[in-house]
């Protein structure tokens, strides 16, 4: 893990082990919590987060303050906070790195969110692949509890909050907030249609905040240093804070880098990630995991922030940048991702359960030299139909395909005219079984 | 039948929870650890501990990637086939793994040590291609490293990390 320039979330990060409770506290940790529970009303905390411009780091980019404000003042108790540590978006590993760097930062952030909405209980929802982090968090929660930062009557303030680790059985859809709520309650993790307002009716029909851990880790800093300071950290006009960009693929130094929100893609690749790998030339990047569209070279200098990407017709997603070079077949890459989505679809609604396998089949045929001209409009139409699915899973699943159709139609056509994948002769290992 | 000690431990845990059902994944993991996989008997046990029907338990058990409804080896190798690992030759990693262990994907070695399963992106993309074995990542794989890992696991019994 390398951090270039500004360090906020990685201020205590070490190369060899997680920062300890004492190290976290020496760097000013738990001061924001102490001050908040003793001197601030929950409402004031929410106002500061609102003014900071903090937006969700888990993919959707929803303003955190607005989400918190969604918990009605007179809502019933108990209320819940879920720190989403599920991170199953392909290409995304920033939350693992963050939790491993500074577990108490995410614990304090979660506590502050709980204080802001007067919650009593919280969960770290964590995927099985991150069992090491689950164990780390369990240990550190005990340390926080022993020090009086967790449990009954925190720091003598009258605020009580209990936080524990909830292990997932492992399924991509569990990252979606409504599905995650079902998963925690021990139900099959189907998403709920239309995204009922979790802030009003979440876990056991009580108000529930579901926030990504990177979002939560920003909170203590916003309270200690102020919303204006947080805003000023960003490089883009509309952005706020820093961002943990995870970079993988054909770069020299893949890794998770903390950089100002709105850092240009070119800077992230060339400066943070050490440039393109030897012999590789940039072809496209997925800006935020497998449910975002391929961005071609024309966007190489784009600021990686919610608004600039939106203006260009893209999404920041998780900010986990997957870099593809000119020797990598994007049809095969899209096929790989579609296989993933087909396997992970929860199967509840028809467009997703039936439509995605059809798209996968068309991609497979194109990749294996059986493509036909009419497949292109078919792919377009089917992808568009995914808007009718139950939740955001299916529209996200087709984003790479939509990017492929929009920017790399020529590459699809080469597969058709050559009746094979034009990249296979480069020794690339792209042959995939049909299902 | 599960041992009385384990039963009491789980009962305590369930009783302490605000809602018993929130423990269902933990209980499935615990029984999976005891039986080696989530057997039909284990599904029944989970149900009786939590007041759920076996069908309700199975509905969850079959949903999750890390709940094994069939016998698995001591080491379950979850071979990542996410897009980043794919870019770095995940298919040849899987091929080599299967060749070395003489199994097909989904099968267990006759000595009961290894099962190879495909896995969705395991979140080790900065060390692609990577596999997850009993809670531990093994990244930047090539045939030599795979051979070394298998050799190390064969030598190191019981598992290095607690079984899950």
Offer a few descriptive terms.
heterodimer; A: 435 residues; alpha/beta; Rossmann fold; five-stranded mixed sheet; four-stranded parallel sheet; 18 helices; B: 164 residues; alpha+beta; Arc Repressor Mutant, subunit A; four-stranded mixed sheet; 4 strands; disordered C terminus
Domain count of chain B: 2
Widest sheet: strand ordering of chain B: 2-1-3-4
CATH topology of the largest domain in chain B: Glutaredoxin
Give the SSE order of chain B as H and E letters.
HHHHEHHEEEH
| Total of DSSP H or I helical runs spanning 4+ residues of chain A | 18
CATH domain class name of the largest domain in chain A: Alpha Beta
At CATH level 2, the architecture of the largest domain in chain A is 3-Layer(aba) Sandwich
* Secondary structure: helix percent of chain B: 40-55%
Report the span from N to C terminus of chain B.
20 Å
Our count of helices of chain B gives 7
Poorly predicted spans of chain A:
426-435
Task: Give a verbal description of the structure.
The complex is a heterodimer of chains A (435) and B (164). Chain A folds into three domains: 21-232, NADH-ubiquinone oxidoreductase 51kDa subunit (Rossmann fold, 3-Layer(aba) Sandwich); 242-325, Ubiquitin-like (UB roll); 330-426, NADH-ubiquinone oxidoreductase 51kDa subunit, iron-sulphur binding domain (de novo design (two linked rop proteins)), CATH 1.20.1440. In chain A, the strands form two sheets. Chain A has a five-stranded mixed beta sheet with strand order 6-5-9-7-8, with helices on both faces. Chain A has a four-stranded parallel beta sheet with strand order 3-2-1-4, sandwiched between helices. Chain A is globular and about 75 Å long. The two termini of chain A are 36 Å apart. Chain A is of the alpha/beta class and 435 residues long. In chain A, a hairpin with a 5-residue loop joins strand 5 (242-249) and strand 6 (255-260). Chain A is 41% helix and 11% strand. In chain A, helix 13 packs antiparallel against helix 14, helix 15 (375-385) packs antiparallel against helix 17 and helix 17 crosses helix 18 (409-418). Chain B folds into two domains: 4-61, Arc Repressor Mutant, subunit A, CATH 1.10.10; 75-155, Glutaredoxin (3-Layer(aba) Sandwich), CATH 3.40.30.10. Chain B is of the alpha+beta class and 164 residues long. Helix content of chain B is 45%, strand content 11%. In chain B, helix 2 (24-35) packs antiparallel against helix 3 (40-50) and helix 3 (40-50) packs across helix 4.
């Amino acid at each position: 893990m390398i951090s270039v320039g500004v360090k906020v979330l990685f201020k205590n990060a070490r190369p060899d082990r997680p920062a300890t409770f004492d190290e976290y506290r020496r760097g000013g940790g738990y001061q924001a919590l102490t001050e908040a529970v003793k001197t601030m009303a929950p409402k004031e905390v929410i106002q500061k987060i609102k003014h900071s411009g903090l937006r969700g780091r888990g993919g959707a980019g929803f303003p955190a303050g607005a989400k918190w404000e969604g918990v009605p003042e007179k809502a019933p108790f108990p209320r819940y906070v879920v720190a989403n540590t599920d991170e199953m978006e392909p290409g995304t590993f920033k939350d693992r790195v963050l939790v491993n760097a500074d577990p108490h930062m995410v614990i304090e952030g979660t506590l502050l969110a709980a204080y802001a909405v007067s919650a009593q209980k919280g969960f770290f929802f964590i995927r099985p692949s991150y069992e090491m982090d689950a164990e780390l968090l369990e240990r550190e929660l005990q340390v926080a509890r022993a020090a009086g930062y967790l449990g009954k009557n925190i720091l003598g303030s009258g605020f009580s909050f209990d936080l524990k680790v909830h292990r997932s059985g492992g399924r991509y859809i569990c990252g979606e907030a409504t599905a995650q709520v079902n998963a925690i309650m021990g139900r099959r993790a189907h998403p709920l249609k239309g995204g009922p307002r979790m802030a009003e009716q979440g876990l056991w029909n009580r108000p529930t905040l579901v926030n990504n851990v990177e979002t939560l880790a920003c909170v203590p800093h916003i309270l200690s240093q102020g919303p204006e300071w947080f805003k000023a950290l960003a490089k883009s006009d509309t952005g706020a804070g820093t961002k943990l960009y995870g970079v993988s693929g054909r770069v020299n130094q893949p890794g998770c880098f903390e950089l100002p929100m709105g850092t240009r893609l070119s800077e992230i690749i060339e400066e943070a990630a050490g440039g393109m790998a030897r012999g590789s030339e940039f072809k496209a990047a997925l800006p935020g995991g497998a449910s975002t569209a391929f961005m071609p070279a024309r966007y190489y200098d784009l600021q990686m922030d919610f608004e600039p990407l939106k203006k260009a017709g893209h999404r920041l997603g998780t900010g986990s940048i997957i870099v593809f070079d000119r020797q990598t077949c994007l049809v095969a890459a899209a096929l790989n991702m579609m296989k993933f989505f087909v396997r992970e679809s929860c199967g509840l609604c028809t467009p997703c359960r039936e439509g995605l396998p059809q798209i996968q089949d068309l991609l497979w045929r194109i990749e294996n030299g059986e493509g036909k001209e009419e497949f292109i409009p078919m792919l377009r139409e089917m992808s568009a139909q995914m808007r009718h699915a139950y939740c955001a899973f299916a529209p996200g699943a087709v984003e790479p395909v939509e990017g492929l159709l929009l920017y790399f139609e020529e590459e699809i056509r080469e597969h058709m005219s050559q009746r094979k994948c034009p990249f296979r002769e480069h020794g690339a290992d792209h042959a995939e079984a049909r299902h | 039948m599960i041992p009385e000690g384990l039963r009491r431990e789980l009962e305590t845990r369930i009783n302490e929870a605000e809602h018993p059902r929130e423990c269902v994944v933990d209980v499935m993991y615990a029984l999976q650890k005891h039986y080696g996989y989530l057997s039909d008997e284990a599904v029944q046990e989970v149900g009786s501990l939590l007041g759920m029907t076996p069908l309700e338990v199975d509905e969850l058990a079959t949903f999750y990637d890390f709940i094994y409804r069939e016998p698995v080896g001591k080491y379950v190798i979850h071979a990542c086939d996410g897009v980043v690992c794919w870019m770095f030759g995940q298919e040849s990693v899987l091929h080599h793994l299967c060749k070395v262990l003489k199994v097909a994907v989904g099968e267990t070695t006759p000595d009961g040590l290894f099962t190879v399963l495909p896995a969705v992106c395991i979140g080790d993309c900065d060390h692609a291609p990577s596999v997850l074995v009993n809670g531990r990542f093994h990244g930047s794989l090539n045939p030599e490293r795979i051979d070394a890992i298998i050799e190390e696991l064969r030598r190191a019994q019981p598992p290095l990390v607690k079984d899950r």
